[in-house]
């Protein structure tokens, strides 16, 4: 009798526990999916609006779309002075230049800060960190004067060349932290095998810091792709416009805006960022995990 | 965890170096502003060839039309190349500020009333009276005043505007109210009719949008009472008493439900044009600039109608209306080709060829000959605003002085105090006093 009750209560408890264990992930997923939906709502709304005729966009607030229309894409692609392909290409040139510049220059600067000894190293490191804190508005006018004296206005050079000088201090810092995590014994082993500073960097450090390089690539991609202000300032000719600058061409606060075309082209311009993130996500998380707390 | 203390150490050292860097940055900025006047290759000439840079803001339609004018001009003047630079409103001013500070301003600048005085006072704009090859003889006399101050002409009117009431006949019809006679109506009529419409529509719409959502309403109110928002010497010209009256009137509109709720109004103030209550057919009337008629008509899908601003005494000639420059043409004072730039501005303003392309995109042309030339070619809504401008030409008051430096902020400020009054957080006289104090604080 007693054993029987005991058995049954244990069984009951077990079923409760088992059912909760089964329900729990469902609840968690519903909650997570719900909040993801709330976060994503503006993006979903934009995608849906891009598939609607322009005059319906603000009249119908919902996100249910009755018939798919791709007119906005067709119209938006050719709405501005140049076909949108041109802006995408321009952005691609700037982004690629910036990525290459950052990868080469930041990794070298980081190696110097992390491994080499030179006069005033700590001072320069502090200066580098400070440059992260300078707002763009402080430096934009002097920079503009410099570049306009060089005759670089309306070229991609002001957007790319500074990256070759390791001006993105954030990435230098990121890589310094990463290199500091690589055991010095590896350097010493390489030195015994006859490597100089250059070979250690190229053959030992660089292959080991791929996650940090990937993080840099992805962030440079996203930040440069979305950068509006400096591209607006330096590019004056519509042939040279990049995606963010061109997108603003759809908006004009003093008259009506072709929202449909703008949303359509915004969706188009989101695709590369989305893909970059999707493909690089693995590296990104690895990179952050290995450069931060260990 | 190894790295954390090290980073913190660097950050602390970084803080100590902050002062040094701040000083360095200030020096850099100062040397840039005070900087050399050598200038950059803002425009280059070789062998009689001149390159001008021309900048404007606006929609894509404007850009296409303006580019057509540039192409036509270049065909007639093979030695001149004009490079168009354009952008939307907010980015435009950031970019202009940067290029002017860096001494690399475009030669021809599309300018707005809000910033005209600011740029002119800093010596960035050329006095167009001294420019060769620019003729203003055919301009309607009242239209030059807005770009003129301290004895110089710094902006040439590129299109005329007037503050007006816009009416949606469909909403009037839905409410069963007749559109009033705008040549004789008073502010009391306006309030009464608006309240009547709101009552009849019973929550589905309202009589009018609030007045006080921009400074032009207050300016007209002041002008009807013998004052003016700005004085010619660049000061605030409206008294606390009249401002209090103005806010009292706003309150009266609220209490009679002539305007939507305070919550609704404060949201509507910042809505883009095509999402505003007027454009979406929720209001029978609202206050707009006459050249916005086309945009509002398009957005609402209704043929809207312009009405005169009500007056205090029922005489339209006393309603204080004036021609505002919807925008201006300015020439950079540092331009190396001022003569060529002036000739191009002359072309924009005085040639029928340019007029026929641009039509009323920047507002009704101030040159009377061009205006009569283009009026028959306008779209219905633009033709209506051109006719409105023509109709009120006999009823105008003095030109309204351009806002002083710092006056560009007044729109945001009055919106805030109108909101305070509408929500009942401030009484009209409190709001009037605080509003005037704040605007005075902005002026330099």
Give a structural overview.
The complex is a heterodimer of chains A (294) and B (444). Helices cover 73% and strands 0% of the residues of chain A. Chain A is an all-alpha fold and 294 residues long. In chain A, helix 3 (84-115) packs across helix 7. The longest helix of chain A is centred in the N-terminal third of the chain and has 49 residues, at 2-50. Chain B is of the alpha/beta class and 444 residues long. In chain B, 45% of the residues lie in helices and 13% in strands. Chain B has helices at 3-34, 60-76, 89-101, 113-121, 169-175, 187-201, 215-224, 240-255, 262-269, 293-300, 338-350, 352-358, 368-374, 380-391, 410-422, 428-442; strands at residues 45-46, 49-57, 80-87, 108-111, 148-149, 152-153, 156-161, 163-167, 206-208, 283-289, 305-307, 324-331. In chain B, strands 1, 2, 3, 4, 7 and 12 form a six-stranded mixed sheet that branches. The longest helix of chain B is centred in the first third of the chain and has 32 residues, at 3-34. Chain B starts with a helix and ends with a helix. Residues 1-46 of chain B have low confidence and may be disordered. Chains A and B meet through helix 4, helix 5 and helix 11 of A and helix 1, helix 2, strand 3, helix 3 and helix 10 of B.
């Amino acid at each position: 009798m007693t054993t029987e009750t005991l058995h049954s209560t244990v069984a009951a408890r077990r079923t409760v526990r088992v059912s909760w264990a089964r329900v729990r992930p469902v609840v968690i997923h519903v909650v997570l999916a719900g909040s993801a939906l709330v976060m994503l709502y503006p993006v979903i709304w934009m995608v849906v609006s891009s598939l609607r005729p322009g005059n319906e966009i603000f009249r119908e607030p919902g996100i249910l779309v009755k018939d798919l229309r791709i007119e906005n894409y067709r119209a938006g692609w050719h709405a501005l002075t140049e076909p949108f392909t041109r802006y995408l290409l321009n952005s691609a040139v700037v982004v690629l230049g910036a990525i290459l510049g950052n990868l080469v220059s930041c990794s070298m600067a980081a190696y110097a800060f992390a491994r080499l000894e030179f006069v005033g190293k700590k001072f320069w490191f502090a200066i580098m960190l400070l440059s992260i804190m300078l707002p763009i508005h402080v430096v934009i006018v002097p920079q503009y004067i410099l570049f306009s004296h060089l005759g670089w206005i309306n070229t991609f050079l002001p957007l790319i060349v500074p990256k070759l000088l390791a001006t993105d201090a954030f990435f230098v810092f990121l890589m310094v932290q990463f290199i500091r995590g690589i055991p010095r014994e590896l350097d010493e082993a390489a030195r015994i095998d006859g490597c100089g500073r250059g070979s250690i960097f190229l053959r030992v450090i660089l292959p080991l810091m791929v996650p940090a390089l990937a993080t840099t690539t992805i962030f440079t991609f996203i930040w440069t792709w979305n950068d509006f202000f400096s591209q607006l300032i330096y590019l004056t000719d519509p042939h040279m416009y990049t995606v963010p600058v061109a997108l603003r061409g759809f908006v004009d606060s003093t008259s009506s805006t072709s929202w449909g075309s703008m949303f359509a082209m915004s969706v188009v311009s989101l695709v590369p960022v989305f893909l970059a993130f999707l493909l690089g996500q693995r590296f990104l998380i690895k990179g952050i995990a290995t450069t931060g707390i260990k | 965890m190894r790295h954390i203390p090290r980073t913190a150490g660097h950050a602390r050292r970084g803080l100590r170096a902050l002062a040094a860097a701040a000083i360095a940055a200030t020096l850099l900025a100062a040397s840039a502003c005070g900087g050399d006047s050598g200038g950059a290759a803002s425009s280059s000439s070789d062998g009689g060839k001149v390159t001008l840079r021309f900048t404007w803001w606006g929609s894509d339609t404007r850009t296409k039309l303006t580019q057509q004018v540039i192409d036509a001009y270049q065909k007639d003047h093979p030695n001149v190349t004009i490079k168009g630079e354009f952008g939307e409103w907010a980015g435009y001013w950031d970019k202009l500020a940067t290029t002017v500070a860096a001494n690399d301003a475009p030669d021809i600048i599309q300018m707005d009333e809000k910033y005209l005085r600011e740029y002119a006072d800093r010596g960035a704009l050329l006095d167009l009276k001294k420019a060769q090859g620019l003729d203003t003889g055919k301009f309607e006399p009242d239209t030059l005043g807005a770009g003129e101050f301290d004895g110089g002409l710094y902006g040439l009117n590129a299109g005329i505007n007037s503050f007006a009431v816009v009416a949606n006949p469909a909403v009037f019809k839905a409410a069963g109210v007749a559109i009033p006679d705008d040549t004789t109506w008073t502010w009391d009529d306006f309030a009464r009719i608006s309240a009547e419409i709101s009552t009849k529509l019973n929550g589905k719409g309202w009589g009018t949008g609030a007045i006080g959502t921009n400074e032009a309403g207050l300016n007209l109110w002041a002008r009807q009472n013998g004052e003016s928002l700005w004085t010619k010497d660049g000061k605030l010209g409206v008294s606390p008493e009249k401002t209090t009256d103005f806010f009292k009137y706003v309150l009266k509109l609220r209490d009679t439900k002539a305007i939507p709720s305070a919550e609704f109004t404060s949201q509507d103030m910042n809505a883009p044009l095509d999402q505003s209550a007027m454009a979406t057919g929720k209001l029978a009337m609202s206050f707009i600039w006459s050249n916005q008629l086309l945009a509002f008509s398009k957005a609402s899908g209704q043929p809207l109608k312009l009405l005169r601003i009500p007056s205090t005494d029922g005489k339209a000639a006393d309603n204080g209306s004036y021609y505002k420059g919807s925008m201006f043409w300015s020439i950079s004072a540092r331009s190396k080709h001022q003569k060529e730039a002036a000739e191009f501005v002359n072309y924009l303003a005085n040639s029928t060829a340019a007029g026929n392309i641009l039509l009323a995109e920047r507002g009704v042309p101030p040159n009377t000959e061009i205006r009569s030339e283009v009026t028959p070619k306008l779209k219905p809504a633009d033709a209506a605003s051109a006719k409105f401008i023509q109709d009120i030409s006999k009823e105008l008051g003095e030109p309204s002085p351009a806002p002083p430096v710092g006056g560009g902020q007044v729109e945001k400020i009055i919106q805030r105090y109108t909101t305070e009054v509408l929500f009942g957080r401030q009484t009209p006289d409190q709001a009037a006093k605080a509003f005037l104090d704040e605007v005075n604080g902005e002026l330099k």
